[in-house]
Design brief:
single chain; mainly alpha; transmembrane; kinase activity; kinase; MHYT_dom; Integral membrane sensor signal transduction histidine kinase
């Protein structure tokens, strides 16, 4: 039994993957700025949920883009388990990309865990269809899809870590380019994994009456866009507030260094600075 892909939903899955990837890169930079803040664990957990929802949504939109000539639905419990896997994988990714120095060993270990987790999320989501007889997989394609997921995860972690420092030249352009590369890698792994699935002629979906595919497509798309765009907006607002607070603190430190704490009058350092400036102007 063969199925066909809906081109519109395939393109939508790529857009969601890009949005999730860009959110991950921005979050890694934002978490780096929050390294000493008390709220960093909360941001890490929230970021993992946001990124996990994005990755999971891309996966399910990609699955919903694949139409079989039979009624298809998804088991709620197994579907929820695949979402939990995506969130756990995202937590590992953000914690790795936003903390300390990224050694080659830590990069490979975290990337392998993340890649295996993404692949597990994919095949768990496929299992939620509960086909009878069960889906048969071409094992070399399955193994290759896991390998692609691991390589893509390592590359994604490295890109997120490299681009996490704010203020670098052309940072926005580089993050956009990195998000495009990550999105192509994530969607490539998904559709390659889908190609490993073989549906026996006369198969029946036992979850056909549980979660309707059309309803799920609408909910997943709306939720993913809301969560990802909301996270980016919140991160942008927080970064702006952080920059304003930093400039205000720098002005306060400069004032304290050039004025007497008791009388508030200019001190010797302020006088020396003014004299040096006057000498420079006279020299010109």
């Amino acid at each position: 039994m063969t199925g066909v892909y809906n081109p519109l939903l395939v393109c939508l899955s790529l857009v969601v993957a890009f949005l999730a990837s860009y959110t991950a890169v921005e979050l890694s930079g934002g978490l780096n700025a929050l390294a000493s803040a008390k709220r960093r664990p909360l941001w890490l957990a929230g970021g993992a949920v946001s990124m996990g929802v994005g990755i999971w949504s891309m996966h399910f939109i990609g699955m919903l883009a694949f139409s079989l000539p039979i009624a298809v639905g998804y088991d709620f419990t197994i579907t929820a388990a695949s979402l939990l896997l995506a969130i756990c994988v995202s937590f590992i990714a953000l914690a790795t990309a936003s903390r300390g120095a990224l050694s080659l060993r830590r990069l490979c270990v975290a990337g392998t865990i993340m890649g295996v987790g993404v692949a597990a999320m994919h095949y768990t989501g496929m299992h939620a269809m509960q086909m009878a007889p069960e889906i048969e997989y071409t094992m070399w394609r399955v193994a290759l899809s896991v390998g692609v997921a691991i390589v893509a995860s390592i590359a994604a972690l490295w890109l997120a870590f490299t681009l996490r420092t704010p203020g670098a030249e052309n940072l926005v352009f580089k993050r956009l380019a990195a998000a495009i590369v990550m999105a192509i890698a994530i969607t490539g792994m998904h559709y390659f994994g889908m190609s490993a699935a073989n549906f026996t002629a006369g198969s029946v979906c036992l979850s056909g009456e549980k979660l309707d595919a059309n309803w799920l497509a609408l909910v997943v798309t709306a939720t993913s866009f809301t969560v990802l765009v909301g996270t980016l907006a919140l991160l942008g607002f927080h970064t702006s507030s952080l920059s304003i607070s930093l400039r205000r603190a720098n002005r306060q430190l400069h004032y304290l260094g050039t004025h007497d704490a008791l009388t508030k009058l200019p001190n010797r350092q302020h006088l020396s600075s003014r004299i040096a400036r006057a000498v420079d102007e006279c020299a010109r």
